[in-house]
Amino acid sequence: MIPELGQWCMVLALLLAGIQAIVPMAGSYLGDEALMRSARPLAYGQCLFLLLAFLLLAQSFVAQDFSVAYVAQNSNLDLPVAYRISAVWGAHEGSLLLWTLILSLWTVAVAVFSRGLPLSFISRVLAVLGLVSVGFLILTIFASNPFLRHLPPLADGNDLNPLLQDPGLIIHPPMLYVGYVGFSVAFAFAVAALLDGRVDQQWVRWSRPWTNVAWSFLTLGIGLGSWWAYYELGWGGWWFWDPVENASFMPWLIGAALIHSQAVTEKRGTLRTWTLLLSIAAFSLSLMGAFLVRSGVLTSVHAFASDPTRGLYILIFLGVVTGGALLIYALRAPRIAGGPPLGWCSREALLLLNNLLLATACAMVLLGTLYPLLVDALGMGKISVGPPYFGNLFYWLMAPLVLLIPLGPLTRWQGDRWADVLQPLRLFAVIAAVAGLLLAWLSGDSSVKSVLGLIGALWVALGTLVFLLRRVARRQPGRPLLSAEMLGMSLGHVGVAIFIIGVMLTEALSIERDVRLEPGQTETIGAYQFRYVSMRHLDGPNYRADEALIQVLVDDELVAEMRPQKRGYRGGQVMTEAAINPGLFRDLYVALGEPVGANEAWAMRLYHKPMIRWIWLGAIFMMLGGLISAAESRLYRRVRQSAAEGAAGAHA
Amino acid sequence: MNWRLALPLLLFVALGVLLFSGLGKDPKLIPSPLVGKPAPAFAIENLRDPDARVDSAQLRGQPYLLNVFASWCAACRIEHPVLEAYARQGKVRLIGLNYKDRREDAIAWLQRFGDPYEAVAWDIDGRVGLDYGVYGAPETFVVDAQGIIRYKHVGPVSPDVMEQTILPLLAGGGS
C-alpha cells in the first residue's frame, strides 16, 4: 500500500509541476494576474507531494519492505537504521527522487523569499523551475521508479554498497545536490530575464544571493566527498580527477566565475550577456554531471549502475533545457545593451580576467573528462586521461588567478592606476616571497611548483589582509566596518590561501610507507613510532572485521591509539577502514593491507600527512564566505525599493 | 540572429552529438572482437626485472587472467583486493600487463597494494595494449589453456564478476 501511495504522490507532483510550467508562463504573456498568481500555490503543492513520496520511500526502508525492488536491492535485515535511511539516496532511483525534492524545496524558497519581485517576473522564474521539475519527475516515474514492486517479496535484501555505509556519505550527496540544484535558480532567473527582454541590473541583484548559497553548498558537498574519499577509500588521497569528481567540479568552477561576474553586472552593468551565459552554463553543467554519472558513458570509480536508456533520456532533457535556454539567449541577447565600456585597469577588468581563467579551467576539465569519448567517437581507439594531465594544466591555469586575487578588491571600479593599486602591495609581495621561501626551506620542500604555490598562498592571504587594513584605516563614522559582502569575499579568499597551503604541503611532505609488521614490531616515521600491538576479530552488524591495535609514540610517550580495520561485507566486498588520528598540522593514518605469513603479520600502510586538514579547512572558509556574502543586506534592501518602483511604474 | 551569440548553442549541439555517440558505445558492454581468437603474442620486458622478458608463448598450458593495470588508474585500486584475494587462494592464475606506466611508479604501487601477479609485463608505450584493443585500465582478459581469449571485462573486476563470469569460464577449462 505504502509504495503505491508513494507513486501516486509522485504522479500528483508531476501534474502540479506541469501546470506550474505552463499556466504562470501563459499568464505572464496574457497579463492575466490570476494565472500568474497560481505559481506559488502550485510550487507549494508540488513540494508537499514530493516530500510525502520521499518519506514514504524512507518508511519502506525503515520497515524493511523487501517487496519494493529498490529497497531489496539496497538494504538488508542487518543494515542499521541510520544506513537504511541513507540508503534512500544510496542508488540511482532514490537519489533522483532526492534531487527532485531538493529542486522543489529551492522552488518553494524562491516563491517565499521573492515577495518583492514583479509578479510577471517571478511567474516566469517559477514556471521555468516547474519545467525543470517536470523533466526530473518524468525520468523518475517512467525510467527510475523507486517504488516498483518485486513480487513475490524477497525474504531478505542485498546490501547497501559498503562504500556508502559511512556517516560522511549520509550527508555528502544531499549537500552536493543542494548545490547542483541551487544553480537552477540562477538559471531560471536568467531565462526569465531573457524572456522579459529588458535585461537590466535588476535580475542580477535578485539572483546573486541564490547563486552564492548554491555555490556554498556545492563547495561543502565537494569538500565532504573529498574528505570521505580520504578516509574511506584507504588510499590517503583526497582528489583523483575521476569523471564523477570532475562532473561536480565543473559547475563549481563556473559557479565561482558566476559569483564574480554577477558582482560586476550588478554594480557596473557590464558583462551582462556573459553573466546570462554563465548562469545557463552553471546549471547545464550540473545536468551534464548527472548525465555522465548515470548514463554509463564514462567509466568511473563511483558511477551509478548505468543504463543507456536513462542516459538517452537525460540527454534529451539536457537538450531541451540547455538547448532551449541557449536558443532564447541567441535570439534575445542582442537586445541587451552592452553597458559602460571596460577600462583596462579597473576591478571589472580584473574580474573579467578571473572569469576567463575559471572558464578556461572548466573547459580544460571538460575536455579531459570527455576526451576518451571524443577519441572513441572519431574512431581513433579508446584511451583514458590520467591525473597528470589535470594536475599540471590546472596548476598553471590557476597560478595567474592566484596572482590576481589580492588585486581585485584593491582596485577601484571603473578605473584606477596600476601604480596606486600595486603601491601598498609591494612590501607584502616581498614578505610573501621571503616567507614562502623560508617555509619551503624549513619544511625541506624545494620543488618549484610548491615553492611558487606557497608564495602564492601567502600573497593571497597578505593581500586580503591589506584590503582589510585599508578598510579599517578609511573607516567612515556611522557605517559598518565591513559589509557582509566584503567580509564574505575576504573569508573566501583566505579560504583559497588556506587551501593552497594545505595542498602544497600535503603533496610535498607526506610520508607514505608500506611495511610488514608483526605484533610487537615498531616502524618509525619522522618523530612518530608506530607500534603494532595486537590483532583481533570482531563482528559488525553486517560484516566481519580484523582490527589491529597500533600505538603511536613520540619520545616513548603515547600520543595515539589507532584501530584500523579490514572488513568483509556480506556481499563479498572487502573494505579498508583506515584509522586516522587527525590534527590541525598533521594526520597520522594507518590502513591495513593483507595478512602476510604467520604470526599475525600484516602488510600495513602508514602515513604521516602534514597540513591535510587545511585543504578542507580552506573549503569551509570558502563556503562560509559564500554564505555570508549572500546575507548582504544591500541586495535585499534594493529588491524592496526597486519592487516598489516597479509597482509604481506598472500602475502609472 | 547574431552568429556570435549563437556560438554557445552551436557548441552545445556539438557536445550533445558527442554525448549521444557515447551512449551507443557503453564502455563496459563492448564485446571485444578478440573473444574466441588467439591472444595476440607478446614478449616484452618484465616489470620486476629489466633483463627478463614475459613471453606470451610460455604462458600457455593453463588458463590465466591477463589484467591490464596502471599505477595512475584509480579504478585499479578498487579491483585490486578482489584480484589479490582470488589469486592468493589459488583460484585464478594472474598475469599483469602494466599499461603506460613508469617502472618505479608501478613497482611502488605493487609494493603498496600487494603483488598477486605471477608475472608482470611492462607495456611502457601501450603497444601490447594496442594489440589487445585496450582503451584504458583496468581491463581483464580471460585466456584459456590454448591461448584463446574467452572473455574481456572492462572496468574493475568485482566479486560478482569473478564468481558468476570468470570462474565458470575457467572451470569450463580448456575446451
List descriptors:
heterodimer, A: 652 residues, alpha+beta, 6-stranded antiparallel beta sheet, 4-stranded antiparallel beta sheet, 21 helices, 10 strands, 64% helix, B: 175 residues, alpha/beta, 5-stranded mixed beta sheet, two-stranded antiparallel ribbon, 5 helices, 38% helix, globular
What is the string of helix and strand elements of chain B?
HEEEHEHEHEEH
Proportion of residues in helical segments of chain A: 55-70%
Shape of chain B: globular
Spans of at least 5 consecutive residues with low confidence of chain A: 301-305, 638-652
Mean pLDDT of chain B: 83
Radius of gyration of chain B: 19 Å
Q: What is the number of helical segments of chain B per DSSP (H or I, 4+ residues)?
A: 5
Number of strands of chain A: 10
The percent range for helix content of chain B is 25-40%
What is the SS-derived class of chain B? alpha/beta
The biggest beta sheet of chain B is recorded as: 5 strands, mixed
Please tell me the overall pLDDT of chain A: 86
Q: How much of the polypeptide of chain A forms β-strand, as a percent range?
A: 5-15%
Number of helices of chain A: 21
Q: Give the overall silhouette of chain A.
A: flat
Task: Report how far apart the termini of chain A are.
Answer: 56 Å
List the uncertain runs of chain B. Answer: none
The amount of beta strand of chain B, in percent, is: 15-25%
Helix and strand content put the structural class of chain A at alpha+beta
Radius of gyration of chain A: 27 Å
User: Assembly state here?
Assistant: heterodimer
